[in-house]
Amino acid sequence: QAHFVESGGGLVQPGGSLRLSCAASGLTFSDYSMSWYRQAPGKERELVARIGGIGGNSDYAGSVKGRFTISRDNAKNTVFLQMNSLEPEDTALYYCNAGYRGPLFDSWGPGTQVTVSS
Question: What is the pLDDT of residues 30-81, one digit of tens each?
């Protein structure tokens, strides 16, 4: 059973930056595409960014394109999300999961809270 643990969130002012990490276990990490999702209060969970298994291709939601960068370290079974120029609308609980066209596992991690506020 796959297991994901997200970290790196926090409180940041508009325009600031954060780097999220997601440590994965229970799967052959390099075999899987990985994705970051977020869920704001009262809203559906949405896909933020995704990256192929060997990191050669990536894709972003329109609202974060040009500000966020997804990357991965297959040696450490970890996927990252570098978030720059943060906006209050980025405030949400951020999660990761395997898969490129939707989450492959039901076992979501605890998420990491990102709050953008002055």
Answer: 999 999 999 999 999 999 999 998 767 999 999 999 999 999 999 999 999 9
Q: Quote the pLDDT of residue 19.
A: 98
Task: Write out the DSSP string of 18-62.
Answer: EEEEEEEESS-GGGS-EEEEEE-TTS--EEEEEE-TTS--EEE-T
In whole angstroms, what is the distance from residue 10 CA to residue 112 CA? 8
Using CB atoms within 10 Å of the CB of residue 16, give its burial: 0 to 12 exposed, 13 to 18 middle, 19+ buried.
middle
What does each C-alpha distance from 68 to 20, 43, 47, 102 come to in angstroms? 11, 20, 13, 19
